[in-house]
């Protein structure tokens, strides 16, 4: 895991975006540092989908309503990728006229403040550059009850995870709406009744 708070690291998830996990890895018989790509899970790691063939840093906007991906900083870039459906589809956008080595991104979340700040440098000898993006306009409205769905946390179909059954309220993938400050992600959490295999 990355200790740098401005990059996402090799595994990335947020408690405010239930079930969504991003990870770097490779498909094959053994772990490899070559041909490392990006994968996403929308069901807390039960299944995975490949999304990028190269390493990217990924940030969560508005509790996972939008996801931002930028290539690792070894190569300068002018583009970022945005997904509104938990990483199923991505669209490319330009954020700079000049390619930038992106050293990190700071996401500021607030009731009236939806700002991302890219920081990096145009070359290894240049001064630091800051690019601010206001992403509030990508959400056209506040979420309503119709924008939510229930989601049951499970482990390969087993509903008891660490002694609890948990049901979450989750924004439907692809809905362009902003969550309110009073958004509560856990709908219910109840303890599981012990069964025979819980004893020794």
UniProtKB/TrEMBL annotation:
Predominant place of localization: membrane
Keyword Phosphoprotein among UniProt keywords: no
One GO cellular component term noted in the UniProt record for this chain: membrane
Keyword Repeat: yes
A Pfam family it matches: Sortilin-Vps10
Domain Sortilin C-terminal positions: 109-200
Superkingdom: Eukaryota
Residue ranges constituting the Sortilin N-terminal domain according to the UniProt record: 8-104
PANTHER family the UniProt entry points to: SORTILIN RELATED, VPS10 DOMAIN-CONTAINING RECEPTOR SORCS3
Annotated protein name in UniProt: VPS10 domain-containing receptor SorCS3
Organism encoding this protein: Crenichthys baileyi (White River springfish)
Lineage: Eukaryota, Metazoa, Chordata, Craniata, Vertebrata
């Amino acid at each position: 895991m990355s200790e740098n708070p401005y990059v996402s690291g090799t595994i990335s998830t947020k408690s405010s975006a239930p079930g969504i996990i991003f990870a770097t890895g490779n498909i094959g018989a053994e772990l490899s540092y070559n041909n490392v790509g990006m994968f996403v899970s929308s069901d807390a790691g039960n299944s995975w989908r490949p999304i990028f063939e190269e390493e990217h840093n990924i940030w969560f906007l508005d509790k996972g309503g939008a996801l931002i991906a930028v290539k690792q900083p070894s190569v300068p870039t002018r583009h970022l990728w945005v997904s509104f459906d938990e990483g199923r589809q991505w669209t490319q956008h330009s954020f700079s006229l000049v390619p930038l080595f992106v050293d990190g991104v700071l996401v500021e979340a607030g009731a009236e403040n939806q700002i991302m700040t890219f920081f990096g440098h145009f070359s290894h000898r240049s001064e630091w550059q800051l690019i601010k993006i206001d992403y509030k306009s990508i959400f056209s409205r506040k979420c309503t009850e119709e924008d939510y769905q229930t989601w049951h946390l499970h482990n390969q179909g087993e509903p008891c995870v660490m002694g609890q059954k948990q049901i979450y309220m989750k924004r439907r993938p692809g809905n362009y709406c902003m969550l309110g400050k009073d958004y509560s992600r856990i709908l219910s959490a109840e303890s599981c009744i012990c069964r025979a295999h819980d004893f020794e």
